[in-house]
Amino acid sequence: MSDKVSIYIPAYNAEKTIEHSIISIKNQTHAVDEIIIIDDNSSDKTLEIISQFKDVVLIKNEKNKGLSFSRNLAIKKSSNEIVGAIDSDVVLNNNWLEILLNNLNQNQIVMCGGNMTEKFITNKFNAWRAKYYSQNWGSKDVINPAFLYGCNTLLLKSAWRNVDGYNNEFRTNGEDIDFSNKIKSFDNSKLFYSSKAICSHLQNDNIKSLSKRIWRYHSYGYKIKKPSIYRFIKLFIKQLKFFIKRFFENLFKFNLFFMYISFIIFIDFIRLEICNYLKNKK
Fold first, then answer.
1. How confident is residue 224, by pLDDT bands cut at 50, 70 and 90?
2. For residue 191, which phi and psi values (nearest 5 degrees)?
3. Using CB atoms within 10 A of its CB, is residue 221 exposed (0-12), middle (13-18) or buried (19+)?
4. Which is nearest to 74 in space by CA: 55, 92, 61, 89?
5. Which pLDDT band holds residue 242 (cuts at 50, 70, 90)?
6. What pTM was estimated for this model as a whole?
7. What is the pLDDT of residues 41-74, one digit of tens each?
8. Which residues contact 183 (CB under 8 A, 6 or more apart)?
9. Mean pLDDT across the stretch 160-168?
10. Number of Cβ within a 10 Å radius of residue 195
11. How far apart are CA 135 and CA 144, in angstroms?
C-alpha cells in the first residue's frame, strides 16, 4: 500500500485558527500528499485565509451541511487510501503523522488517533474543560479505546467504505463515537490510540462559549435526536448528576471557581435545551 496521505480539515467560521492548522500539516516529518479543506458555508474570513494556500484543495458547501457530511465528502474526494483528519482549531506536533503511520494497518488496526491537549491551559475555563471534557485517553497507548476523538485521526479509506461512512444525522457532535463503534463492529477491525502522537487544541473559551460547547456536545450527540419533554427530562437528570458530582468534588478541594463554572454550565444547559425545544416545536 502506498504511504501517500491526504489530510482534511472540516471548517466553519475558523478564521482565528485555520492558518495554524494548515501550517502544522505542512510541517509534518512525513510529507502530506494532499490537503483538503471543506468549508461548511462560513460567514467570517475563513475562505480568505484558506485562499492564501494555493496548494490546498478547497471544497465549499453551498449551505451548512454539518460535520458528518463534510467528513464524508472530504474522504470521498481524497486521492489516497490513507486519510487523516484534524479539526480547524488543532495544531499538530511535527511527528504526529509519522507516529500514527507506524501503527496503521498493523494487527488489523484500520484507524488511529492521537493525544490532544489544551494549548491555553492557564485560562481557567479551558482548564475546567480539560479536566471534564479532555479529548485524549491519557499517557499510555490503548488498543480499541471506547472511541477515537474526531479532532485528530488517521484512517484507511477502505474502512470508511466498509461501514458506509459517517452518519449525516450527527451535525456537530457525536459522529466520532458512532463511527468508531461501526469500525470496531466490522470484521474484527481495531482502533488505536497513540499517546505519543501529540497535538494542541487552540480553543480559548469564556463562560458563554464553554456553556454552548458543552450543551452542543451532549445535546447533538444524544441518542434521542428529536427535542421533546421526555428528552429534556433525561438530559436534565444526566446534567444534574454531573453538576452534583463536580460541585462536591471541587468543594472538598475548595476550588471555588470550578464550582462557579459547573453551576453556570448546568443553568445554561437547561436554558439552551429549553430554547432548542421551543424552537423545534414551532
1. low
2. -105, 160
3. middle
4. 61
5. very high
6. 0.91
7. 999 999 999 999 999 999 999 999 999 999 999 9
8. 110, 111, 159, 163, 189, 191
9. 96
10. 15
11. 15
Question: Are residues 126 and 257 in contact, defined by beta-carbon separation less than 8 angstroms?
Answer: no
Tens digits of per-residue pLDDT, 79-90?
A: 999 999 999 999
Q: What is the spatial distance between Cα 30 and Cα 85, in angstroms, rounded to a whole number?
A: 15
Quickly state the pLDDT bin for 225 (edges 50, 70, 90). confident
In this prediction, residues 181-208 reach a mean pLDDT of 96
Query: In which band, very low, low, confident or very high, does the pLDDT at 2 lie, cut at 50, 70 and 90?
Result: confident
Q: What is the secondary structure of the chain as a DSSP string?
A: ----EEEEEEESS-TTTHHHHHHHHHT-SSPPSEEEEEE-S-SSSHHHHHTT-TTSEEEE-SS---HHHHHHHHHHH-SSSEEEEE-TTEEE-TTHHHHHHTTTTSTTEEEEEEEEEES-TTSHHHHHHHHHS-SS--SS-EES-S---TTEEEEEHHHHHHTTS--TT-SSSSHHHHHHHHHHTSTT-EEEEEEEEEEEE-----HHHHHHHHHHHHHHHSS--S--HHHHHHHHHHHHHHHHHHHHHHHHTT-HHHHHHHHHHHHHHHHHHHHHHHHHH-
Q: Cα 171 to the chain's mean position, in Å?
A: 12
